[in-house]
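My main concern about presentation is that the manuscript never shows what a single data entry looks like. For the editor and my fellow referees, an illustration may be useful. For illustration, here is how one protein appears when written out as sequence plus structure tokens:

***
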Amino acid sequence: MSALKPLTLTGDLVRLEPLSLEHEEGLIEAVKDGELWRLWYTNIPTPEGMRAEIERRLALQEAGSMLAFTTVSQRDQRIIGMTTYMNIDASIPRVEIGSTWNAASAHGSGTNAESKLLLLGHAFEELGCPAVEFRTSWHNKQSRAAIEGLGAKLDGVLRQHVRTRDGSLRDTCVYSITAAEWPQTRSTLRFRLGQDVVAN
């Protein structure tokens, strides 16, 4: 997986840039948009904890288990969130797309769909992954619907899997898209974004 190194992925709506401490101020403004850290069923950094979260992700990237991105709107060059390749297994190779959040004002704008199109395309077409994984809380119905909308299949539920910020244990839904399913997923995302679905 020599191609799995910091890089920029660019679309019409978003640009995924390598995460940097220089993005801290913009990410703080983005997370304040909708006060996303108040969602009890997911772990989104608070404004005060943003620097620590950036440092955590960069440390995991240095260790080889994560590749972290900042999501930037192409329309106004505003930072709107974060996403990653995580739980990287170079021996397969396999990645999970996760630890993703976007400012509330960006929801429904197509930016998340295009981010997934860029990340999945790179994973399947450049990294050669046979499958890409997604995980989310059983209670995060919005996230589950979005993942299932991609065409991802539910592999199973990990019961009492992760301790959340309030100390409770969450059940984690594990989904995946395989390389064989990628062409259909790509067409679905392109159709949703109003792009040509015949190409490639």
